[in-house]
Amino acid sequence: MTQSYRIETGGLINRNKKISFKFNGTSYFGYEGDTLASALLANGVHLVGRSFKYHRPRGFFGAGVDEPYAVVQLYRNGETEPNIKATEQELFEGLEASSVNCWPSVNFDIGAINNFLKIFLPAGFYYKTFMWPKSFWYKIYEPFIRKAAGLGVASTKHDKERYEHKYEYCDLLIAGSGPSGLASAYSAAKNGAKVILAEDKPRYGGSLLTSDVNIGNQSGKDWADGIISELKEMPNVTVKNRSQVFGYYDHNMLVMSEKVSDHLPKTKKYHPNKRLWYIRAKEVLISSGSIERPIVFGNNDTPGVMLSSAAKEYLKVYGVLVGKKPLVFTNNDSGYESAIEFKKHGVEPIVLDSRSNPQSEIIDEAKNLGINIKNSYVVVAAQGYKKVKSADVATISEDKKTLGKIENINCDCICVSGFWTPTIHLASQSGNKTKFNEKIDAFVPGVSKQNETTLGAANGVFTLEETLKTSFEKGKELSKKITDKDNEISIPNVVEKKYSKHDKFWCVPLPKGKTYKRFLDFQNDVAVSDVEIALREGYRSIEHVKRYTTLGMATDQGKTSNLNGLQLVSEIENKVVPSVGHTTFRPPYTPISIGAIVGREVGKHSKPTRKSPIHNWHEEHNAVFVDAGVWLRPRYYKRGNETLFEASKREAKNVRTNVGVCDVTTLGKIDIKGPDAAEFLNRVYTNAWLKLPVGKARYGVMLREDGIVMDDGTTTRISENHYHMTTTTAQAANVLSHLEYYLQLVWPELNVNVVSTTEQWAGAAIAGPKSRDLLQKLFPKTDVSKEGLPFMGYVEGELFGVKARIFRISFSGELAYEVNVESDNGRFMWEKIIELGEEFQIQPYGTEALSTLRIEMGHVAGSELDGRTIPYDNALEGLLSKKKDFIGKRSLQREAFVAEDRQRIVGVIPLDKKTSIPEGSHLVKDASAPLPNKKLGHISASCWSVEHDNPFSLAILKDGKNMIGEKLFVMSPLKNKVIPVEIVSSHYVDPKGERVRS
Amino acid sequence: MLHIKCPHCGMRSQNEFSYGGDATVKRPELNKEVIDQEWDNFVYNRVSPRGKHLELWQHLSGCRQWIKVERDTATHEIFNTYKANEEIA
Ligand SMILES: [Zn+2]
User: Is residue A890 less than 8 Å (CB to CB) from chain B?
Assistant: First the structure.
């Protein structure tokens, strides 16, 4: 296939490298350096999609980030990505893309019927029509809207690509590598500042790539190339292309998305797809340039109508003609630049200038080239459905209100220039209150809010000479503040054409009797009439008009539509534009992949995984692991085809009859030292701690100041001023912060130090009637007899040459011990326990059996201490000291906390002694009562009691104290279960606690 | 993301810190009889001003010190930071 719209020579593409690609199933080719848009245009393809609401044919409007139409579904290396701008997507071998928003095809689109029914789809149509009846929403309206109006389709597959985050600090971050970016980067870099220069396009240079200027006796492009290669050599400079600075956040934190691989057929090994840079900059230079504004006229969304600057870019960068019979419609001198480029390439353009008698250097040049120029002329409407075929044009009166006789001119594209809009998004995001500049009919940044400075066209400066001068100076001035260096830079001589004044004209009036749609927002199909309706219906705030009409919303964020929308509102409302104000710019400036935002924190990497030093042993012995906070813990050890239920029952039963061992390394451990440690514990815990002797452990409960239980655990007095505190696995970090809070802020007079030792100790709980016999074998030299190591006792021992701490504490209700050794010896300890425990039928047990054991003995844990319960609720009121004050004590006097029928922990057994009770179920009095059925309590934890061989649960029940023996119902709407139950004591096993003391 | 100057470690990114609420709240002394109102003010009632706010942060992934930060709740501007025991003028 020949590329009928590609000129013979010229452009910045590599004509030696052909690249084949597919669009909507048809094969084409382009060249290396093309975008998908330029390659399609070279092949004469203008129809790329359908519009959002009316499904009108859509072509290309811009050549870069501002593109509102040409959004495609991209297929790359077996993956698909929606909403890719064809104007930004670089061509690679094998690229495939398809249109979005059309069904069944771009040429025959059912939704286009909306176009002919458009009288029924005015502003607010969705709000008004789909409001009623409500029941229609899910079944009829939503599926219809989704089918007819969606943009692209997200992949349902797991994303194989990798995304990275990078954190960087610099002196100057410069966003945009046009003339102002290059000049400021250069002078700052020469002053030794650490500079990051970011360019969102593949090529550096911005407007210099397409403008006909001369800098220091070089073309603009050659000058830019020279600066860039010099900057790349400097060690203090990072130059990044394909990198969009899209967000300006607090304290000069900016975020940049670097497209590392999107231009390649597939991502290189060890490379990410995208890299998100979090950059903290001392100074930020915004050199983001400006975007050309459209002029509004009839059917101005027809494929073939595009920005004049885009037509010039396609020609100068890609060697592509957007048409062979171009009509240039302009209100300023920029349109002439495109016209001259066309003419130079043998194409005869016609220029329609809304101005009556403009005079300037560039207009003279156009005249000398023999270009047909019509002054006081406008395009009234484009003609053609899938492509511009001709234009209705007319003269316009000086006051721009009256059109002359309509003539028809043959053309195949209309290149529009309505002057320039500075790209002020980053400045606005930083908090800068932008101001309206009457001279250019656009907003420019006002007083700096953070450390941002806006330069060049982004600041409303449209001459190259002034841009370069101010940018060189600003780069020098800002870097001098940081590096204290003052290197002189000579500012090169600039040759550029002087522009005459633009025409403050942006919308062609409707001729009498015509109802052309005149679009303001091309991405959302918002026409002049829609804004008129919104205003007629009483919407005044520009923010409301935006939401009602969808003007300036969606992926292009109104880059081309905002100002014309404001102009319209100001005209109808008879207000000046600045008093209408513009809508708030929020990050991101362009759409950012969710994958890039998430970065590496996916799947297993979404949080750290902590493993005990005994982890590998568990793995080697068929442990099935469970996430416990950030830890991986064995849930059970699978034997043969055992289920979780069978295995945990076996393990728990073995603890009750023989002896079991459980890895408790994950328990939080805090070392507490200092002369005031006892006093501190006495304030932190609810019970008394001043008289705990050395070598003894005590169970303690700590509260928050609001009286709610925060955590529980045992603390052991290792020596006079040294305590070892344990916390639950989940609360370990919070408890440490809590202790530090009181020591540093509330009671700094206490001489106490706390430090986490969770990782320093490996722990094994040895539990069961035979645990003492085993312990004696492990520590033959230590007296671990009933008298030598009584319940809640502590001794230090030697485990075959390894120093160990032995605590006689129990979580299972059985005679039990906990042995701690330094982490490195964890596996040694564990293997010794297993080895010597063999004769006592030892079995390791996991968290499931651990839960069973604690539930049936009524020992509370995280599911009861859930941030909603006080000590009484957990039957822990016996631990509340009456003699001393402690954290949270005063709150326990609150009315609800002392109510007669206060909730309290109870045991729950199904009447049939068979049906398992789902955790989280509600307890109700009457199972058949109408909804909402009054909830009396909830099931906090459930197990299969190995002692009684039937299901047993714990519940927090209103007036639990007086409910023992009552018959209630457990309801679980989630599991669709209603179970008749009996309320019993929470201590289902060994209620007197004889075993632990045996 | 805020940039907070830890008085012990220097400028650090917000994600090293955790927020700890109003720094002007004073815990009633231990063993002191307090009326409900005073206790409620300590536990629950906060002013939540728009503008300057003296607040606590803990340098969790750093020196673990609790510090005081004077910050504008609307603009996020940080005026000053102090050590826990520092006198604030
Ligand atoms: Zn610190």
Answer: yes
